[in-house]
Design brief:
mainly alpha; single chain
């Protein structure tokens, strides 16, 4: 086995480990509302979410993967060592925030770690502003869009069903929430798994297994292996779940009933579907948090536990620079032992 192939195998395995951790860390995004409203038990909820995470492989294409793979960092400056260091930056930040119980963005941790490693190798000239602009804009747009849609759906349902008995409404939306949870899991699996697909495709290109035209296209003979490997990894991660963050997302921000869970998940799903089709890597965490806040605000603003929300926002702001710093340090350490990296 050549050194190039061995390094490629290590890079792909680390990428899939990150994808698993992404599902593990972000499981709360898919299942927090359906668990907190007691529509499904935790075990059934993770199975439901994992199933539809995998179904996402066949639904929303690979536009986000193209953005991650070659739209944010100058590809000529990327080596497999850069990819590994970037993944280390993302994994370390994800593990820290999982331990702290903070629902931060695995997506932003990935692009931060990747950028930090690339900058350490080749300077700030590797950054492609056009790819970053839409991602940075959607750090604000995604949660606001989720908030507005969640709030609007709740108001509309309150008005349409104002003469119905609350118990009857609960029965209806306990069933409908299964549909909204499935839709949100498809959106989550599509947008988040595609980020790993882009990283794996970049590693294959760096090792000479993909041409530049194949990287820009459908990844040649590696098209389905890349997609299925990424979707399987994130689905398994979701199955094993992150219960610390489920608690924060599902009950500590605001209390939800089935109708609120349905509105939050539907708002999140619409936002994620739109972003995935447009090729914009967004944070599923930011999206569902905004939707939950929007739903809670329809009752009264005091229903939102703003202290918890404030901690989450601070973690959001820190994610890209913190993971970039870890990615840069990881690349520096690699270069110390491998000067040609």
């Amino acid at each position: 086995m050549t050194n190039v192939l061995l390094l490629l195998i290590i890079t792909v395995l680390v990428a899939l480990a990150f994808d698993f951790l992404n599902g593990f860390h972000d499981a709360a995004n898919s299942i927090a509302t359906v668990v907190s409203t007691r529509v499904l038990s935790p075990k059934l909820a993770v199975l439901w979410a994992a199933l539809f995470n995998f179904v996402a492989a066949f639904v929303l294409g690979t536009a986000v993967a193209k953005t991650i793979g070659q739209g944010m960092i100058r590809i000529s400056s990327v080596t497999q060592y850069v990819v590994i260091a970037g993944l280390i930056g993302a994994i370390v930040w994800d593990l820290l925030t999982w331990w702290w119980g903070l629902p931060t963005s695995s997506s932003h941790a990935l692009i931060g770690g990747y950028a930090g490693a690339a900058i350490m190798r080749a300077g700030f000239g590797v950054i492609l502003p056009s790819g970053w602009s839409k991602t940075l804009i959607f750090i604000l747009v995604a949660p606001i869009m989720g908030l507005v849609l969640g709030f609007s759906f709740m108001i509309a349902i309150f008005w349409l069903l104002r003469n119905k008995a609350p118990q009857r409404v609960d029965v209806w939306f306990r069933k409908l929430q299964l549909v909204s949870a499935a839709a949100y899991s498809i959106g989550h699996g599509s947008n988040d798994a595609q980020k790993t697909m882009g990283i794996v495709a970049t590693a294959l290109y760096g090792a000479g297994y993909l041409t530049s035209s194949e990287l820009a296209g459908n990844w040649g003979r590696f098209h389905w292996p890349i997609i299925l490997a990424a979707q399987t990894s994130i689905s398994l991660g979701t199955y094993f779940g992150g219960w610390r963050i489920v608690h924060t997302m599902g009950s500590r921000i605001t209390k939800l009933r089935p109708v609120g869970g349905f509105c939050a998940e539907t708002a999140g799903a619409i936002t994620l579907f739109s972003a995935s089709l447009a090729g914009i890597p967004v944070s599923t965490t930011h999206t569902i948090t905004g939707a939950i806040v929007g739903v809670g605000a329809t009752t009264r603003l005091s229903a939102i536990r703003w202290g918890i929300a404030r901690r989450i926002v601070v973690a959001w702001i820190l994610t890209i620079p913190a993971s970039a710093l870890v990615g840069a340090v990881a690349f520096w350490a690699i270069r110390f032992f491998r000067p040609a990296a």
